[in-house]
Specification:
- There is one protein chain.
- This protein is of the alpha/beta class.
- The protein folds into 4 domains: about 180 residues, Rossmann fold, CATH 3.40.50.300; about 90 residues, Helix Hairpins, CATH 1.10.287.1770; about 200 residues, no CATH class; about 120 residues, no CATH class.
- The chain is built from 30 helices and 9 strands.
- Strands 2-3-4-1-5-6-8 form a 7-stranded mixed sheet, sandwiched between helices.
- β5, α4 and β6 form a beta-alpha-beta unit.
- α21 packs parallel to α27.
Length: about 675
């Protein structure tokens, strides 16, 4: 399937979703900076029945939910967190496109009450779009704890909109917010820009067509050099008008000594600071000492490292050992092996007497015995613990600090500090790690991170068997294995950073305060994400198993084993029986590692062969679930291109290592 077809299908599904929501006559969009509690506000407004899906043509998740506001049925759309509505990342582009295409009745700007200035920067852009708005200053309790007092009535007078204070985890202010949404108003907050900018803004506006947001806001985006708007312009105006607009933008810049984006930001900052001075008072308080001290440690260039290691170790223990170890064993050996599998096996055999269909359901590559056991018995426990741990890190405010501490190390790999989380998660489950690359800003970063996870990050299930094998050998074997994997990771990341096209964004991240997350919010988020997993990922496991079943029935799997045996025996220097283990590695990495373990236990592999087999296997193709997740996140073409690189590269490294060890 081509990427174009995938995008078309996404558009079709998107249109279908909106047809199914026709009973919701009005749309309201939640907008806010990252880490302001927007998703909690969304949950309190909509309740539990929400839909989470990718915005058409992107990998960015958007949540939809119906709400009752007074006597009105309203569709609430929870947009990705942004710092600017002139996009610098895919998340910001999606949020801007929602405002441009969805025609909202109102915008709910959810803000951090401790950072009013940052909220006003977004509110100015919403005002320029000529959209009705309600300002929700969330985390009001934290602002008061820090001695920040905001004169809400005066702020409302200045902005000409309703301003509500909320504490989302306590549900404080939610009813007031609903009441305010009954009568949203257009903000009066117009930043006055340089006369040249204002002049060309009017000239460009005259060329633009009518849209769901004002022509003035579109003109300011164009003057700011917003290339992401070009697709919309090509669709909605003539080619000669587009050329005229681009010429006007260049002409405007030529008349100014400083960049237009800088001048626009400067005007907005000045107005925001003026309003903050008028409505906000700061008093000195002595509170939150423990968290403030910890806050300094987490970003300290030296003390931040041990804190990082403790967080990584705790996260890995919870997801990798508890989730991928204890819970997976319990689901597999108790729930499935003891109770479900025998009942399903007996039921299928009593109802279906055709061996082909029996095998399709309960055979070695059966839907029940493999697909559902894999999806529900193995991945679901890991998914649940991952979502719980990730939700805790999200709500605690530590994730931005984690990125700051590791930023310098990841720059060499063509990434920034945010990539630390997917890499660490890959040690628990590559499938979840691939999905978590959504936190990265650019498509370039997502491709590099996905490639490195697929190539050189072994999952916890595989690691358990690998460490079991290395534990019976000398320290030399462990150092060879770990050294090779680390060297490949660094080399592949460096080369990918030079080859993969795309922007290298500046590392800009807001540091929210550290706080103790509310358990109820974490559970609510986790349940919503599990629902997504059951709807989106489980069908992929069933499809993959059906493919393997058909290949097995057509004797293709056996043929692949016989064809690849010469490479395994002569180039890698391994016994021919290891070929089957490599083939099974595509289904599950730990299956392959377990096959190698059995061969080593039988004395069929010496120490050098164990090293070669484990290095090759670690670098070999990701498991089937991870592959399908790569298809879903990066597209079919990119996924197969990665596989075409990884397979020969893993064999090449294994062959060279075999040659070196035997010299």
């Amino acid at each position: 399937m081509s990427e174009e077809k995938e995008i078309t299908d996404l558009h079709k599904r998107h249109r279908h979703r909106h047809r199914s929501r026709d009973h919701a006559h009005e749309k309201m969009i939640l907008i806010g900076n990252p880490n302001v509690g927007k998703s909690v506000i969304f949950g309190l407004l909509t309740g539990k029945y929400v839909t989470v899906s990718n915005y058409p043509g992107t990998t960015v998740e958007v949540s939809y939910g119906n709400a009752s506001i007074g006597n009105k049925k309203v569709l609430i759309i929870d947009s990705p967190g942004v710092n600017n509505l002139t996009p610098m990342s895919e998340d910001e582009k999606v949020t801007r496109d929602i405002l441009l295409k969805e025609k909202p009745e109102a915008v709910v700007l959810v803000a951090d009450a401790k950072n009013l200035k940052r909220a006003l920067m977004l509110l100015m852009q919403i005002a320029e779009m000529d959209l009705s708005c309600v300002l929700d200053l969330n985390m009001e309790d934290e602002a008061k704890t820090r001695g920040i007092e905001i004169h809400y009535e005066r702020l409302s007078e200045l902005l000409h909109i309703e301003v509500i204070g909320t504490v989302a985890p306590q549900r404080k202010g939610i009813q007031l917010l609903k009441n305010a949404l009954l009568n949203p108003r257009r903000p009066s907050l117009d930043a006055h820009y340089h006369p040249t900018i204002e002049e060309y803004c009017k000239t460009i506006s005259a060329v633009l067509p009518e849209a769901n947001i004002s022509k003035r806001s579109l003109s300011l985006m164009i003057l700011s050099g917003d290339e992401s708007l070009k697709e919309w312009l090509i669709t909605n105006i003539r080619t000669e008008d587009l050329k005229k607009i681009e010429d006007l933008r260049d002409e405007a810049q030529s008349k100014l000594k400083e960049p237009i984006p800088y001048l626009i930001s400067k005007s907005r900052i000045n107005l925001a600071e003026h309003i903050v001075r008028e409505v906000q008072k700061n008093r000195t308080v002595q509170s939150g000492i423990v968290f403030q001290g910890l806050n300094k440690w987490t970003t300290h260039p030296v003390l931040g490292i041990p804190v990082l290691l403790v967080v990584i170790f705790t996260f890995y223990e919870f997801v990798g050992n508890f989730g991928a170890g204890f819970l997976v064993n319990f689901f597999e050996e108790v729930i499935f092996s003891t109770y479900l599998t025998p009942v399903i096996d007996k039921t299928v055999k009593s109802l279906i007497h055709v061996s082909f269909f029996q095998d399709m359901l309960i055979g070695p590559y059966g839907i029940f015995t493999m697909a559902l056991t894999y999806a529900l018995g193995i991945i679901l426990p890991i998914t649940t613990t991952f979502f719980l741990a990730f939700g805790f890190l999200e709500d605690s405010g530590y994730l931005p600090r984690l990125a700051v501490v590791s930023d310098k190390a990841f720059r060499f790999l063509g990434l920034n500090g945010k990539a630390i989380l997917p890499m660490i998660l890959g040690l628990g489950c590559g499938t979840m790690a691939t999905m978590s690359t959504r936190i990265l800003e650019t498509n370039r970063e997502k491709i590099i991170a996905t490639f490195l996870i697929a190539l050189a990050i072994p999952c916890s299930a595989q690691l358990g068997v690998v460490f079991g094998m290395l534990g019976t050998l000398s320290l030399r074997a462990t150092l060879w294995w770990a050294g090779c994997i680390l060297l490949v990771l660094i080399l592949a990341g460096y080369l990918a950073s030079k080859v993969v096209p795309g922007e290298k964004p500046d590392f800009f991240i807001e540091l929210p305060p550290l706080r103790m997350p509310a358990l109820g919010n974490i559970v609510m988020k986790t349940l919503s994400r599990i629902e997504w997993y059951l709807k989106e990922a489980v069908p992929l496991f069933i499809l993959g198993t059906l493919i393997l079943f058909l290949l097995d029935k057509m004797k293709v799997l056996g043929w692949l084993e016989s064809v690849s045996a010469p490479v395994v025996v002569h180039f890698l220097g391994l016994p021919s029986k290891t070929t089957g283990a490599f083939l099974m590695g595509f289904l599950r990495r730990d299956y392959a590692a377990a096959g190698m373990f059995n061969l080593a236990r039988q004395g069929m592999l010496n120490e050098n062969q164990v090293i070669v087999s484990l290095v090759t296997l670690t670098l070999f193709v990701p498991c089937l679930a991870n592959f399908f997740m790569i298809v879903k996140e990066r597209g079919t073409r990119t996924a197969f291109f990665m596989m075409a690189l990884i397979i020969p590269f893993a064999l090449l490294v294994g062959g060279l290592l075999n040659l070196i060890l035997n010299l």
